[in-house]
């Protein structure tokens, strides 16, 4: 029969020899489209199963929320997982545990298990004024005597006070801050009318002769200069007298041995905060800012509690806009329920993913707040693309064929974007990622995107089948009621006629009369007969739908499968009644497409892109690290208020840095002594070595002695003095042979650096400097502070997942070029993703967002979101042949720009309620995702449509006009009689 067709010569002309690689890509592409076509027919044939199975599975897995658990260890989430600082911390804890510091504890030196801490400020005056000093000591006594009952009720209840839970010294007395002892000495002197002892800053001397560092216990200090003048805040030299202080910090360390003691300590922390709140109400002249070991964890997770209602509001706003985006004036073609069903599909997939996580024992943390938006952007993109493709199918086809055409048109692109999501998230979730919060987020997001993709193929597609049957049955798209005939509508009220408006009946009666063109057999009129009209036009060989990579469900070309498809033309209207089309589609078709491709608009768009790149570069050069964990907690919480007070009053000095000499060193050697003194030069310090060398000098003894004499004097003379006895906690002796003096196996020195406003960056520089020094020093030492676990290689730990994701995207795009008929699509898409990432990173810096784990998570998810928006537009443009670039840009905007615009509208509206949550974490999430949506919209709707009008790929390749300008095509006529499908090949 093919040989008898007189018009086949023109058809075969298009199958001219092409390069082998291009032919292989065409074959692979056609095979994938055929597979999705068969999958669409299968889903359309079993809609009840594919609609009910996901719902039942979600309900079953949703019952696993009884195993819901919240992550308790915030440090493991927000600090780099593998870092040198953690190894150094373990070594420090093994050598000098907190419990071994019997005489002095330094608040920021080591990480205690449980503690309560409070900053006391004065509204007016100094905390050292008699009235305020007495009030603070009264507060200290109340905390000291405070008791908690565990368990709260029952005969086995016990009362626990601080004296039972505290860390004791060698005399079994609770260790308290040195500033308390100094204040008690001042109060005692005032009571007995003695001269008040001089309090020096930052290192003072107590009554027993011991030196104590109070730089982190007194804040906002004004000191007396040498001539009696008042010095500025924190500018005093070593040991300078304190004139006034605006703030005071007290720390109460608790023991947490075993589960019971840890539970009791947790209850004590809660009672501690309640007692401070009650005390602040009784003394309004003081400001109290408490903090406990569990404050960071509680305030970090509190963001999820604050975001519950805004997330529900986001879902509601997005649902309303999704309904509007799926609605049309024509009540039969309108699909408002599909908007809600798309959100229901995303919700069910999220519930299923959460159930799987609960069953596998995973824990929840507040960074997961970004996962619903990853699913929302990807799911809405797929649903709007399917609906747009559905409206381009012929309405006189059977529902199964229309669904199969939609799958063939959309699912290849949707699967590609899903694969890109999974590649970026999967690589960021691999062990290569050194940030636990990023790894857990990406792992969970990859699972959620996978389930969302499966539910889109099953649940949402089956819903599309049901709405298709409603449309075939000529029922209202919203109320599912059959629309009356026009003669019956004339007698109804105006509001009813407006509600039931449709032109579907007129079209089926006038535009599709039952006939068969060019067939020798006559058929009786059959309403189920489906036709494809043969068109004769001057550029049929370059028809956009005749190409193997056209991504158009309505194309008619040679397929390896026997299923024909309807035919469309770029120079004919896709909708026979434009006035009945969707509002956004009409605006793009009539106004925006012509405006954005106008010759006079293009220079302004190019200029706008240059401005975009300029501001992005400006922000990119100012990117800063956000290694402070308090930047990821809810606002107006104890952690934020405490951090603000600490930065205001205690920012003059760095945290206490432990200088640990972890190997035996020849301390008696003069050169080693000079090196150690040189290392500590410029720091505020408490050094046993410096105090010992001064001790020897005061006794007219040489500091360079033999090992035996040096160690013997240290043990039996220096450490026996009361004012130096506390240095015994800083030295570890190692026994040698019998009768020999032991060696100093390890020791520690405490250093404090003078800092300015940019405290964390200075600490990072100091950490790198001292570590480089430790590599060249003859003395093996390390430095440690608990904050170093957040600073140590934080920039590399945060940025590496983003770099890995970008490399994964480029690799995937390069690999996908083997399956794409036009490889330039991958090049354009890669450049678009890099441009979007560059813009988001730059603008978020200008908006005040630092590079922390939350912003990096948003940047990783932005890769997939921008690919969702711009990928279909690029594919639609690159697939066309013939005509002009401008014409194909307009066609691509009509077919794929409108779904992207609908997705961006709903996505942006869903972000608005989240912006109202008073949380630093959600503020970062809102700003980054808003910038992602804005940059993606600019590229999809402005930059790409303009640049594609004068940049490759070319549209003239393969364009050959026929002999006299006309060309004939072979097309298919499909007849459906509700039991079988008969394909007839006809010619014109």
Strand content: 5-15%
Q: Structural class given helices, strands, pairing?
A: alpha+beta
Give the rounded overall mean pLDDT: 80
Helix content: 40-55%
Number of strands: 17
First CA to last CA: what distance?
Answer: 14 Å
Poorly predicted segments? 1-17, 233-237, 504-580, 958-988
Description:
The protein has 988 residues and is of the alpha+beta class. The protein is built from 31 helices and 17 strands. Strands 1, 4, 7, 8, 9 and 10 form a six-stranded antiparallel sheet that branches. Strands 11, 12, 13, 14 and 15 form a five-stranded antiparallel sheet that branches. A two-stranded antiparallel sheet has the order 2-3. A hairpin with a 7-residue loop joins strand 2 and strand 3. Helix 14 runs antiparallel to helix 27 (794-816), helix 20 (602-620) packs antiparallel against helix 31 (920-947) and helix 27 (794-816) packs parallel to helix 29 (853-878). The relative contact order is 0.13. Mean pLDDT is 80; it is low at 1-17, 233-237, 504-580 and 958-988.
């Amino acid at each position: 029969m093919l040989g008898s067709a007189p018009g086949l010569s023109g058809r075969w002309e298009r199958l001219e020899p092409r390069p082998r690689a291009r032919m292989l890509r065409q074959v692979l592409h056609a095979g994938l489209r055929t597979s999705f076509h068969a999958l669409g027919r299968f889903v359309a044939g079993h809609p009840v199963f594919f609609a009910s199975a996901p719902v039942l599975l979600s309900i079953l897995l949703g019952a696993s929320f009884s195993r819901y658990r919240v992550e308790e260890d915030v440090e493991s989430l927000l600090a780099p997982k593998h870092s040198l600082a953690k190894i150094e911390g373990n070594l420090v804890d093994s050598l000098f545990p907190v419990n071994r510091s019997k005489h002095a504890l330094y608040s920021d030196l080591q990480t205690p298990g449980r503690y309560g801490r409070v900053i006391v400020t004065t509204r007016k005056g100094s905390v050292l004024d008699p009235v305020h000093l007495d009030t603070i000591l009264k507060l200290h006594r109340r905390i000291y005597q405070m008791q908690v009952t565990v368990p709260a009720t029952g005969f086995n209840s016990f009362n626990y006070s601080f004296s039972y839970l505290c860390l004791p010294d060698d005399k079994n007395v609770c260790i308290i801050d040195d500033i308390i002892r100094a204040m008690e000495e001042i109060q005692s002197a005032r009571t007995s009318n003695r001269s008040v002892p001089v309090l020096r800053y930052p290192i003072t001397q107590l009554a027993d002769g011991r030196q104590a560092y109070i730089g982190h216990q007194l804040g906002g200090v004004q000191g007396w200069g040498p001539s009696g003048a008042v010095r500025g805040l924190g500018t005093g030299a070593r040991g300078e007298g304190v004139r006034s202080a605006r703030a005071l910090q007290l720390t109460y360390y608790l023991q947490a041995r075993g589960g019971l003691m840890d539970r009791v300590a947790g209850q004590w922390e809660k009672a501690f905060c309640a007692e401070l709140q009650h005390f602040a109400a009784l003394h309004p002249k003081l400001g109290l800012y408490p903090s406990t070991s569990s404050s960071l964890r509680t305030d970090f997770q509190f963001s999820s509690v604050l975001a519950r209602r805004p997330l529900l509001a986001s879902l509601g706003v997005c649902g309303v806009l999704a309904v509007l985006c799926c609605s049309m004036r024509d009540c039969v073609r309108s699909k408002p329920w599909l908007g809600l069903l798309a959100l229901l599909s995303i919700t069910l997939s999220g519930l299923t993913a959460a159930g799987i996580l609960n069953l596998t024992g995973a824990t929840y943390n507040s960074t997961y707040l970004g996962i619903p938006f990853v699913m929302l952007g990807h799911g809405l993109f797929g649903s709007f693309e399917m609906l747009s493709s559905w409206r381009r199918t012929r309405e006189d086809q059977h529902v199964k064929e229309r669904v199969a055409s939609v799958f063939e048109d959309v699912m290849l692109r949707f699967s590609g974007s899903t694969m890109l999501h999974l590649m970026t998230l999967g690589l960021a979730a691999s062990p290569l990622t050194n940030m636990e919060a990023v790894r857990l987020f990406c792992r969970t997001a990859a699972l959620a995107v996978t389930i969302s993709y499966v539910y889109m193929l099953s649940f949402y597609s089956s819903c599309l089948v049901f709405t298709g049957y409603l449309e075939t049955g000529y029922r209202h798209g919203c109320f599912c009621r059959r629309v009356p005939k026009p003669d019956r509508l004339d007698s109804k009220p105006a509001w009813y006629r407006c509600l039931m408006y449709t032109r579907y009946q007129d079209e089926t009666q006038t535009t599709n009369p039952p006939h068969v063109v060019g067939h020798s057999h006559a058929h009786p009129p059959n309403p189920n007969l489906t036709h494809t009209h043969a068109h004769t036009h001057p550029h049929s060989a370059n028809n956009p739908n005749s190409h193997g990579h056209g991504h158009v469900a309505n194309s008619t070309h040679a397929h390896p499968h026997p299923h024909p498809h309807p035919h469309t033309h770029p120079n004919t209207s896709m909708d026979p009644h434009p006035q009945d089309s969707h509002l956004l589609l009409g605006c793009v078709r009539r106004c925006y497409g012509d405006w954005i491709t106008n010759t006079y608009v293009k220079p302004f768009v190019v200029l706008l892109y240059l401005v975009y790149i300029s501001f992005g570069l400006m922000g990119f050069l100012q990117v800063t690290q956000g290694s402070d964990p308090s930047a990821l907690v809810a606002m107006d919480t104890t952690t934020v208020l405490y951090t603000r007070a600490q930065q205001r009053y205690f920012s003059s000095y760095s945290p206490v840095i432990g200088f640990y000499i972890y190997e035996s060193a020849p301390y008696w050697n003069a050169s080693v002594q000079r090196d150690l003194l040189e290392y500590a030069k410029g720091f505020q310090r408490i050094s046993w070595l410096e105090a010992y060398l001064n001790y020897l000098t005061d006794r007219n003894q040489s500091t360079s002695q033999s090992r035996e004499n040096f160690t013997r004097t240290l043990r039996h003379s220096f450490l026996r003095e009361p004012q130096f006895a506390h240095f015994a906690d800083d030295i570890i002796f190692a026994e040698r042979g019998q009768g020999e003096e032991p060696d100093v196996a390890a020791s520690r020195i405490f250093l404090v650096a003078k800092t300015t406003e940019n405290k964390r960056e200075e600490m990072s520089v100091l950490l790198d400097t001292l570590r480089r020094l430790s590599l060249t020093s003859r003395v093996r030492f390390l430095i440690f502070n608990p904050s170093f676990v957040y600073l140590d290689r934080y920039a590399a730990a945060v940025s590496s997942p983003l770099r890995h994701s970008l490399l994964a995207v480029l690799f995937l795009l390069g690999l996908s070029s083997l399956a794409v008929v036009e490889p330039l699509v991958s090049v354009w898409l890669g450049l678009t993703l890099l441009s979007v990432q560059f813009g988001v990173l730059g603008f978020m810096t200008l908006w005040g967002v630092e590079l922390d784990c939350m912003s990096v998570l948003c940047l990783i998810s932005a890769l997939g979101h921008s690919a969702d928006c711009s990928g279909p537009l690029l594919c639609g443009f690159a697939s066309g042949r013939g005509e002009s670039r401008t014409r194909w840009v307009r066609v691509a905007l009509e077919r794929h720009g409108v779904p992207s615009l609908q997705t961006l509208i709903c996505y942006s509206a869903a972000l608005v309620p989240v912006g109202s949550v008073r949380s630093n974490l959600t503020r970062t999430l809102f700003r980054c995702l808003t910038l992602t949506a804005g940059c993606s919209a600019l590229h999809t709707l402005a930059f790409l449509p303009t640049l594609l009008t004068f940049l490759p790929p070319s549209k003239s390749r393969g364009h050959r006009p026929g002999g006299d300008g006309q060309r004939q095509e072979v097309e298919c006529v499909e007849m459906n009689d509700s039991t079988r499908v008969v394909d007839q090949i006809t010619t014109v």
